[in-house]
């Protein structure tokens, strides 16, 4: 494991000043790189910790921001008001993702030929849009992602290996939706797989917190959320292992 350095990265996109989190190993590269997209709540400590973990494994990881430094804990209506119009606009998603990807690729010691992506929720949709429109990711892992329409034609030029993960009880990203999308990928000749985590709901990695961000006991969220969200600690670990396994298939 590597010692790491973390830095806040500021850049402009979507008429907002974004506040991303960059984690990198100590030492000279070149290092493989990972772009991370947060879910609709906003960039939080969970995605930052995933960037830190990836850096410890020898990746330069940028956890992008697409809410301009804002998080929406306990504010589901405000979160939906920001996120749903974004998910309806492919051009905006691609532009936001492209700026973040350019920031990552401009980081010293990044190997642009060893590029990966990880996305949660709306951030999963953003990295899928980048893959669909030519970003040369070796592999893309998405957890309960927002999904584009399942059209094989859109994916015929994509060479990424794609991992799709969701919970069996997720009403917002159902197993049937993932399988339908996977079949479109298969029709395009894309290497894909689906992991379905039994009993897990949406955002099953999100540990319940108090309004001040401190952790609470148990599995039930004490702050307001959209329906169908629930914490599942066992599957949180399993999904993370699946991401590491996927990325580890490519030689470093």
TrEMBL record:
Pfam families: DLH (PF01738)
Top-rank taxon: Bacteria
InterPro entries assigned to the protein according to its UniProt record, in alphabetical order: AB_hydrolase_fold (IPR029058), Dienelactn_hydro (IPR002925), FrsA_esterase (IPR050261)
EC class: hydrolase
Domain (Dienelactone hydrolase): residue spans on this chain: 20-249
Alphabetic keyword roster: Hydrolase
One GO MF term: hydrolase activity
Record-listed E.C. numbers: 3.1.-.-
Protein name: Dienelactone hydrolase family protein
